[in-house]
Design a protein that fits this description.
251 residues, alpha/beta, four-stranded parallel β-sheet, 59% helix
Amino acid sequence: MPARKRLFLGLFLLFTFILIVSLALLAYFLVRPEAPLFQYTLILFFVLMAITAIVSLFALTLVIVSLLRGTPPPWLSKTVKKILIFLFPIIVMLGRVFRFTQDQVQSSFIGVNNKLVEAENLELTPQKLLILLPHCLQDEDCPHKITLDPFNCRRCGKCPIDSLLTMAEKWQVNVQVVTGGTLARRAVKMLHPRCVLAVACERDLSSGIVDSAPLPVWGIPNERPMGPCRNTWVSPAAVEQKLEEILGSRT
Ligand code: SF4
């Protein structure tokens, strides 16, 4: 299993372990007959934590099994994804405690999410796929406004937008350039895709995945050689390879 996914799953395992240890401690206190009021509170905590631990263990087992041995049924992937999205903020907080950067945990989450989207085995036509590109891929000196219509690009080749548009035309898929979550949501509302292929930084990708659920989102993190939000880069070949995997012979 690639190291990128192992971090998220490791933190997830740790979270489940902490829950189970806490349950064991609570169970120990519960057997003491004194202080009945305290006991009722503990019983409530015990039940809540037991439910969370069972759900967490169930999701973790399914994710690991599906990553190691192949693909679970699509309905199961959706359920696991919902649980992961619910637990995601807790896993990020736990990662911080162990001094993992937010980018590392988010990148790992994106890897796990992509695998689960893959497991959904979506039957997609090009028209049902939407490519969302971040505005920061555009050369910062370019005067052309491409967020309203990406085809305002004059195709000078100075930034990856040119090649990405050529690729979108070749595969006949919808493409939009967005400045953030609001424009991304508007594009989804307008075009009604069944799946989104999104390029962005780890932070925007993971929040996009969480916000868009249950809509499946494949995430491709961008490269930021000049720092965040400025002349960022994504390999058009890598995006096309993902397109080929998603659409394959259906085009
Ligand atoms: S490729 Fe398009 S968006 Fe990029 S700099 Fe040239 S005209 Fe501007």
